[in-house]
Amino acid sequence: MESFSLSAVPNLRKSRIDLSDTGSSTSSIRYQDCTVNSRVGFRGQGAASFLTSQGLPIPSQANQSLLFEDSLVVLRLSKTEFWLVDIENTYHELIEKLELSSEPLEDVYRLFCQHSHACFLFSGEQTASMFSKVCGVDLRGDVFPVGSIAQTSVARVNAIVARQEGKGKEYYLLLSDLASSQYLWEALLDAGSEFA
Amino acid sequence: MSMNRLPAPLGLFVNRQKTLNFTFEGQHYQGFEGDTIASALIANDQWLMSRSFKYHRPRGPLTMAGQDANTLVQLNSEPNVLADKQRISADLEVLGQNYNGSLEQDKDAKLSLAGRFMPVGFYYRAFYKPMGIWDKWEPFIRKKAGLGFADLSFKPVYHDKAYLFHDVAVIGAGPAGLAAALKAAEEGASVLLVDENPMLGGALTYHRFDVEGVRANALRNQLEKSVLNHPKITVLNNATCNGWFTDNYLPIIQGNRMYKARAKQCIVASGAFEQHVVFRNNDVPGVVMSSAAMRLMSQYAIRPANTAVVLTGNDDGYLCALELVSNGVQVPLIVDMRAKGADETLQHAVAQQGIKVRLNATVYEALPSSDKKRLSAVQVHNITGKGQVSAGGVTIPCDMLCMSAGYMPVYQLLCQAGAKLSYNDDNARFSLTSLPNNLHVAGSANGVHELDAVIRDGQLAAYKSVISLGLTSSEPEVVACDQQTNFPWPIFKHPKGKDFVDFDEDLQAKDIVNATRLGYRDVQLVKRFSTVGMGPSQGRHSALPTARLVAEATNRTVTETGVTTARPPFVPEKLAHLAGRIFSPHKYTPMHQRHLELGAHMIPAGIWRRPAYYGDPADRDELIQKEAQMVRNAVGMIDVSTLGGLEVRGPDAAEFVNRIYTFGFLKQPVGKTRYAVLTNEQGVVVDDGVACRIAENHFYITATTSGVDAVYREMTKWNAQWRLEVDIANVTSAFSAVNVAGPLARKVLSKVCFDVDFSNQAFPYLAYREGTIDGVPVRLMRVGFVGELGYEIHMPSLLGEGIWDRLMDAGSEFNMQPFGVETQRLLRLEKGHIIVSQDTDGMSHPGELSLNWAVNRKKPFFIGCRSVDIVMARKQTRKLVGFKLDAKVTRPKEGHLVLANASQVDCAITGNITSSEYSSTVGANIGMAFVGVDQQELGTRFPIRVDNGEIVMAEVVKLPFYDENNARQEVL
Amino acid sequence: MKMMNCPLNGLRNISEFVYGGEVKSMPDHVTCSDKEWADYVFYSENTIRVVMEWWFHSPSGYWFIAERHTASDEILNTYDPSERFTKRVEFDSAAAVTEEKRA
């Protein structure tokens, strides 16, 4: 047993977000649902050295993220926990390979963020103002620069918010419980609706 | 219609270019854009705006700053609006409130004559006997003493909240606040400046600070320009900071939004409330604070009267008199309560204007016009002692009286933060001490009144803030100001009363004194008994005279007497402001859309939404029985994605699980599941689930839907102490799951999952397997929760809906349908399986629940093991049993009480019903209940008190109700 | 709203945290008296002093220890539990000790 691959059959993944609402939004903030994109997490004493051995960069401190190539974000959530998020859904093979090669390692535990969390992307100048309506952490650019992570509460659900940039474009990445993601999506649309 | 306006630059708040029409009490009026309802009415010489709460006396504006209840009016959609705060808009319809008939002709005004029959504490004393009489009087009294009416057909409008993050928040944009904001910003701090007015400046927008009357406007313009141009200052106008909460968490209401400001430093420069003088008829329209008269002139360009008398206890009254005269108001007399009078420059200036001054005198009575709706004269007497006046007085005709008895700091936010307000009985000055770290006070709130000192005090507070922020280290000098502004005893009781201490509640000086005579010495008790300070103005004017009167009546100082506690909110706030967008998170399973398509009746299950059953709630009972029969006779499927899921991995996984749960897990074979009961340290059963051993070092454990987060916290907390080599992950949302149950379940599974042998030998009861369905990896466990052959299939959530569809498709040839959680509850009840937190409570130990078999007492430790030993060794008091009653008898509901004895009405309660449902399989009403230990034997009949006091008798029966040998789930 | 400094996430609204009770030493559950056990499970000193408490940062799933004054409510210090619990705890021997004294 333990042959359970969380990266299996990526083409069958289905996000539950009802995107039909987004069309009517006049917000200048761009909302993107990346829930079906690939991601994987690792935790354990050996997680850092495992990722390094696989040629991936890792942030030096918790609650920071780094970019690998153009669009693979490496988030460090604690001393021993790392998540890899594939922003443009182009790193599936690498992620599946990482998942499988971590299996025999005793001090590396793969995490379940592929299926436990929804993944949203927000861009636009007013994004931080939108967040200030739902989040008690100051996410404005001058105090929350690119590479920052806040594990906090957004619209009363737990979320990981990271600020990153790729191809010259800055964005906020949000990961939150998949089961409440429809609720959160609607709450964030509502919060952003005033920013035309 | 007269528009009695003064020339510019007076009228800072109004735009003369734009005229607005509105109605008050059906009459048409005009005002300027920027006018409040009150200023526009006064411009039209309409002073009467409301009727008082108790005696229905005519009332007009007192402060023109929203600090009194005299201007409460009714708008179409909103009652109790402050007419001196609410700006007019085109075609606004305004009504008076709290009258019988009309505002002008209030039939209840005669209540005033009955005043002496309504002493302080009247309601408490008059309506408590005989018992129950209050219920009869209450509707009548509420009507008489009511305020406006609520519009029940209102349409909710969008309200929301937003955080603000700043280094320094400055509350109040008067001279102190402006100076503080500028200084803090210049030193590099990001500053939030909050003011309730439409324009910056505070007292600079109305008060006259010098004889010539030129300083205020010049300084205001200069400060405003600097503040608005400073990039580090954010200004919130028309915004009220409505409370102070720990660590400078400041709710600020502006329009339909409540800001939640987080400031590293907070400077309160909230100013001071001008105080009134207590004398007879001090509530007649036209008797106002000096500051109100000055606001009418400076802010609204209104000449407020023809003839005004000034009654003062400080120099500010003289400045007010100068302002009045310069705007064409006759001022025949300044009545100065002090013996010494004002400083020489002011004395000289008023003399030059021909204003007479009478020292050591007071207004003893105000005389209303014949229709009672406007002041016509004041009666001036000499002061002969503290609160005492000479017998004879002179009558001075006037249509306005301006009062300047002194100032009370706007201490509310500061006292909410824990500051102590103290009063010096020698010089009548207030001070605020014991402020928490990172909170500062400046300006008149800090007892500093002289303008240059106020500016320096604001800058000092800014320095203190930026020093705390580490932006600078230079220490400025402490500001001193010895200007005395408070007259120590501006209270002149009149034998005929109506000398109001509290205008909101119609409380007179004698009411306060009488309360102390009735034994209420503590100012808090005086407040509760007399209701002083409980009205809309919340003691802004009544707190100080009350403290003085109570102090005198009880031979204490004002500091000893104190004032009542200040609590948020500072001004009334709407529920819509508190609610904001109402974030109430809810969770959906991946199959949610499918349930809706199938017509499921969705119910909340904790934070989740789950199908109760599929179909119309009107057919509930029928639908549940039908779904249950389908599972018993063929096959059904239920979405159990809400089940908690926990992964425990690592070399110490088995050791860890063994310490957490009551059973033994060290020897659990790989590929097997085991029932897992969690007790807390008190020995109470708090959760249960199934532990699957996936590998030697890997467990997958289910937990209850509502309990999993707490179980995860417990697990991680214990291991923060034990430091075992184990990783614990909450994977509840990562896995969705279904339970395919019924005699045909194997057939359904065999059609979709080809890499698992589903035969009873290869996949026995309680076994765990892994396989794939359409390439999707799934975890399979053979379970018996509903008492039939059943498989739980756990799959990655993003693939859950697809698997659901696949299974529904495979089951269609067996007429498989989904069943809901209410059906599942019935099915498991028939099997006598408990649901933790439904069939257990905060006292349930394993023995009471007959779970002894799931507790391993040979292992060295599990959480709560010692407590379990202790409680199980004690004499037992109750037991969870199964019961049955005839289907025709009233079915008890969950929560109904089990009694010791059916014949006695008030006999002891021995337990309660935890589960109850009709079972078509058993053909009876069945359930589980806690009963007394002497009621637990099989065959015992015990009484249950159901609705309406009816008693029904139930019989204790053996569990399970169905398939006693578990043959159907285990051997099929 | 109060704020607390989480050792992992920094200064946060108190609403992000879940209280986990006082940090207490568990007596030997095999050898202690019933009274000692009841004291451990049910009783709290409830006096004015600095208490050590468990706090959980919910969004990151992180337990830590906070030292708080019960009268002023001031949080004086927060730190990772590994600073206090340094050794693996065993229960198979009679003398089970859950807590190591801070070095």
TrEMBL record, chain A:
It comes from the Bacteria. InterPro entries: TrmE/GcvT-like (IPR027266). This is N-methylglutamate dehydrogenase subunit D.
TrEMBL record, chain B:
Residues 878-963 form the Aminomethyltransferase C-terminal domain. Residues 166-421 form the FAD/NAD(P)-binding domain. It comes from the Bacteria. GO terms for molecular function: oxidoreductase activity; transaminase activity. The keyword Acyltransferase does not apply. Residues 496-580 form the SoxA A3 domain. Belongs to the GcvT family. This is Sarcosine oxidase subunit alpha. It comes from Marinomonas aquiplantarum.
From TrEMBL, chain C:
Pfam families: SoxD (PF04267). It comes from the Bacteria. InterPro entries: SoxD, SoxD_sf. GO terms for biological process: tetrahydrofolate metabolic process. GO terms for molecular function: sarcosine oxidase activity. This is N-methylglutamate dehydrogenase subunit B.
